[in-house]
Amino acid sequence: MIARALRAFTLLAAILLCVDQAARAAEGSSAFFPSPQPEKDRLSIHAATDLAAMEPLIRDFQSIFPDVAIDYVEYVTNDLQKSASEACRTGAVLGDILLSPSVDQLVKLANDGCAAPHVSAETAHVADWANWRDEVFGFTYEPAVFVYNARLVPSGDVPRTHIELADLLRQRIDFYRGRVGTFDIRLSGIGYLLAFSDARQTTAVYGRLLESMSRAETVVRCCTAETLQDVANGTLYIGYNMIGSYAYAAAKRNSDLRVVVPRDYALILSRGALISKTAPSMALAKRFLDYLLSARGQKVARESSFFFAENGQLPDGADGPETLGESGIARAIRIGPALLAVQDEALRRRFIEDWSKSMIGGQGQRQ
């Protein structure tokens, strides 16, 4: 009884921590990039993207347009969606451009009439699967990956497919109990999108993995950064469905971390950009979007921020196929009308309820 109460208290504390962090993020943690030369224009970016990842792109953009100052406001995905939706409904202004890995949420905003279309020489080069109605554009190519701590996970245990991860947690449940982390899809928009997309790949594999993760009392977190930090410090041994760019950046900082691109299939998200229909600096927002999509912007993103690309080899040290685009394992999350189903409120509520019963409720039944 005492052990059960302690586990319940720990789970509640983790949820309250994520809720508190999400509440702070809803208000927006902001950064200001003054123009290198006398300011003539100012761009407002509202984003569910780590500032550390966007800063190289922002500074390179300013090197091209040195009279532009930039306000950057950072959110978690669900809170950016709520703030943007409310601003759209009331006609208020919420920045010039929105950036988010939860492209289903951006598609919903565009479908609700919150986006301004943009057509240019740069948008013409965007793949069909990463452009919806010239309103939502994908500007990165990021796999969902496994991350593990090489000090703690024996080399023979390293999973390289979803089935291998499920089997590992079944076979070595005592060793990995409470030592695996993933998104709490109740709190994370990108976590929900990845879990929903997982379920669409193969119901049997997803169900088996979900059951194994539940039996292993997987720790759920609101954000990639929290899980990566816990894997780095040894509180967790393995992180599942981590955003590849953030995971690789963490591995560059900590030699104990390893990144695995699963070899059976790899979900690929293209972080999305949407220009607000109420953008005060509409022309500047379009200029910034063109920069993100340009060869120069893509080069900076690949080398300094997001690391992975459809064409070309995996970044040094990543465990996976030589290339993603040619490997046959890439499963791109298409930016299009199918994502509206992902945001259907009844479907979303039912999926999260089923996930909660399996992941959280199942843990409680076995305690």
From TrEMBL:
> Origin organism of this chain?
Mesorhizobium caraganae
Q: Where is the signal peptide?
A: 1-25
Spell out the Pfam families in the cross-references: SBP_bac_8 (PF13416)
Q: Which InterPro entries match?
A: SBP
Recorded hits in PANTHER family, A to Z, give:
PHOSPHOGLYCERATE TRANSPORT REGULATORY PROTEIN PGTC, THIAMINE-BINDING PERIPLASMIC PROTEIN-RELATED
Question: This protein's superkingdom?
Answer: Bacteria
Has the keyword Signal been applied to this entry?
yes
Tell me which UniProt keywords the record has, alphabetically.
Periplasm, Signal
Q: What is this protein called?
A: ABC transporter substrate-binding protein
